[in-house]
Specification:
By secondary structure, the chain is of the alpha+beta class. Helices cover 33% and strands 23% of the residues. Among the domains are: 75 residues, Gyrase A, domain 2 (2-Layer Sandwich), CATH 3.30.1360.40; 117 residues, Topoisomerase, domain 3 (Orthogonal Bundle); 219 residues, Neuraminidase, CATH 2.120.10. β21 and β22 form a beta hairpin. The longest helix is centred in the middle third of the chain and has 40 residues. The termini are far apart. 34% of the residues are buried.
Length: 704
Amino acid sequence: MDLTLKNVENIVEDNMGQFSTYVLLSRAIPDIRDGLKPSYRRVLWTMNEMKATRLTKSANIWGEVMRYHPHGSTYPTMVGMAQKDGQLNPYLIGKGNFGQHASELAYASDRYTELKLAEISIDMIADSKKNGVKMIDNYDSTRKIPEVFPVKYPSILAYAQSGIGVGFSSSIPSFNITELCQATIDYILRGEKRLLIPDFGTKAFVVNDEEILRTINENGRGSIVQRARVEIDGRDIIIKEIPYDTTKEKIIDKILKLYKEDKLKEVVKVDDISGLSGMQVVITAKKGIDMDMLLEKLYLNTPMQTTYSANMMVVNTKGLPELKGVWSILDEWLDWRKDVITKMLEHDTKLKNAQLEILYGLNLIKDDIEEVISIIRNSTDDNLIENLQKKFALSKIQAERISELKLRNLTTTFIKKQMASIGELEKQVAMNNEAIKSDEIKNKMIVSDLEETIKKFGKERQTEIIERASFAKIKKSVIEEKSIPDYNVKVFVTKENYVKKMALTSLRQAGILKLKDSDEIILEVETTNTEEILIFTDKQNVYKKRLSELEDCKPNQLGSYIPNEISLESGETILAVLPLSESSKYVLIGYEDGKVAKIDVESYRTKQNRSVLKNGYADKSALLFDILGTENVDIIAFADNKKVVLMNTETINSKSAKTTQGVTFIKLKDGCTVEKYEFAEKSELPEKEYYRLKSAGTGKYIKK
């Protein structure tokens, strides 16, 4: 027996690679073509085969789904497909308790519920057998199922869904089907790219932040702010609708937690009186409370306001995971849809040509039917087809079809009736052939399908769009000042990305600050607990973290490990941590190309509810990050050709744009770069004034 030695690492890598690919493509991420994950598609196809247009026991359905999906019960998937508040257009219609997307209350067992296909699902499946899409084998090759459904609208954008794979995740918001289809029509006809705003099955508010929405439309990533829909009645705040990505139980639990922690003393009680009339969570306040202030505080501190993080990862038409924006998805979907239409037209043309061939054969025999009967009567099974072909110059298919006609149909009347359709069939074949060659005609067909989709399934928006300016006329800072303890702290940042926040009162009694053996303090600043820190990474992201969200440290504690406090992207590395204070005026960034940017700190203070700022600085190699107060400082640039420049930051003009390229601090020869920047106050460079320049220059060589 031959034994082959294999490295364990290679075995793991090979097997995990295969598994991760399977999870991503076969379970976790929806397909750009029909917007479905395989489990959803298998449920719908099974119900289509069962002709489940009438209510059918759920247990019976998922049992049949096992023929295509051998991974256990798909009932939880079916529940999600039937929840009315889970999707704008649910795939399934249910009878019984299917729970709610907006609640953690359990749904009924599969033996107590019934399901049927929704009309929109029937429409998705309708053309599956017209050869527009490929039919593939199920897991044991006993049945066929469409690879995808030939949907007539970009359904990938009409259904909110999420999935976590190996190394990838997907979170796709839903868009109103009327708005989506109309925007697609306008794009096809006029090339217009309308800004699409997500719409969800729950009827909360969506905040219109054009910058974020444009990023989602163009790049597929962005954070959508949602707010619960409420009514204020005297001392009661009544929650009527909540954001899509939370539940009423999470909101209630958070309110109760804040109350127990004495952070929400304004509230007397919380009652959940939801019922058949819809959601009603009643928050009762104490007498004399400013209800607008309380409402804003609830939005700020509970899931009554959430941020839906869109990450539009899809399986593209090449079968690979890809992050795509709305318009990139539509471009690829339209190309695919035209290909589907072409294949269906080709198939239809083939069928009609086959019909025509038979009819042309009937035309050849119509004037000599008696002879046809005679040949049939006098021929054997072996030579019948050949005899008909010789006598009337028929093709084999024509002869076979004529030989199969019943005697009663071998009449002039029957044949003339059949031949009456020749003209219409020829016209349809000609139209098909023209459409196959013409993208313009196929675009018209897509537009017609989209208009029909709007007519049949279009709905008004569920989530109301509100402007950020329409928030209660109470500044968030006011609420925060009342809810966040304000005291003086000293913040230490270490080389290994630990932050130690210590109250000044405890610092005075502190001994030696505990650090890891290999660690050291690289920055310290005195500020207040209500301020925040900026965390700069190598992917031009700037994360924002409030100091109040970090635990106070004792001298013998390491502090907060920053990567655990924020959600870094895969492979992302922290470059700098800059604590802000009231005196902070500029963010100073020095680049390898010899340019230095002095950015107004207010550019980073805006929209404080955002935990991360994309494109937080210029996309190039940065060496220096710092916060400047009201006073300017001397900095030194060291080039790799041993030239040095010392200048004051006063010579650098400030900019409001975070992505500014900066101004030239040291002029570099071709191929030269800055190795490092230092603050003159801390630099050990001798004779510093020798290198001082009043304006940007090539610098002076280091004295030997």
